[in-house]
Amino acid sequence: METMAKDKVEETRELDWALLPRGEVSQVDGIMLAKNVCNIWDKVWNFQAKPDDLVIASYPKAGTTWTQEIVDLIQNDGDIKKSRRAPIQLRQPFLEWVKPTCSGIDQANAMPSPRTLKTHLPVQLLPPSFWEKNCKIIYVARNAKDNMVSYYYFQRMNKGLPDPGSWDEYFETFLAGKVVWGSWYDHVKGWWRKKDSHPILYLFYEEMMKDPKREIRKVMEFLGKDLKEEILDKIVYNTSFDVMKKNPMTNYINEVRMNHNLSPFMRKGVIGDWKNQFTETQNKRFNEDYEKNMADTSLSFCMEL
């Protein structure tokens, strides 16, 4: 009976998701954003940061939730119960997100200090008060090929974003930077440049995968914490892909606009999955585009192990 009831719930959720409309988009300074965010852009832009705010920034599907959970566990000295006090989107408000009942800005304004906030905004659209207050920022970047694949599957399952179309169509859309939150190239390069004049810890998804403890220690030091080795080991374990995928406080399992049956929010969490998606022709075209767009930066990425 219990299994039948569960199946019925899944069937209902699937039906609800199918009936939901796709998120509409508009633009702010040439960057595509959700239309409901653009409608309250003055409120976002004029958000008042506090000096002890911490911002976790990234391009979508670059390891944001992973970094958020690492930060939360460090802040709570590795206490798992504290990190599971609420879904991650309630613990760390998403600045430029709007729901019918509230916005990330409202959530942030209602939170006591110190606050940890999340954003996918490119560097030029981050509210200026964060620069004025000299807030610490952690930025995480992921190689463009894997990022593109992950974003494609995320758009397919998330009704809050536009329909990505076919993979071939999306490949062209992504290369042109005509996706929500703009061009991957501009995003990673813009934040990379900013780290020379602002307290920004710039992390790489691939380095986090290769040596999570080393990268978690970097975050700990950046936050001014000093945790024992056994606590760091505990954080490494509890922020591993397999553990987080099963954690209802991090896997967005109850978000009605996300169809996890179509593609889970936490899909593979590997380096080099693009090889299962790109055709030879696409890979050649991508490499040419990448070389042209990355010629003006010292930023480099690991595309495969």
Automatic annotation (TrEMBL):
Main localization, broad class: cytoplasm
Cellular compartment(s): Cytoplasm
Enzyme class: transferase
Entry annotated with the keyword 4Fe-4S: no
Reactions that this protein is recorded to catalyse: 4-ethylphenol + 3'-phosphoadenylyl sulfate = 4-ethylphenyl sulfate + adenosine 3',5'-bisphosphate + H(+)
Domain called Sulfotransferase: residue spans: 51-297
UniProt feature coiled coil, ranges: none
Keywords recorded for this protein, A-Z: Cytoplasm, Transferase
Lineage, broadest ranks: Eukaryota, Metazoa, Chordata, Craniata, Vertebrata
Species, as recorded: Equus caballus
Family: Belongs to the sulfotransferase 1 family.
A Pfam family matched in the record: Sulfotransfer_1
Protein name: Sulfotransferase
One GO location term (cellular component): cytoplasm
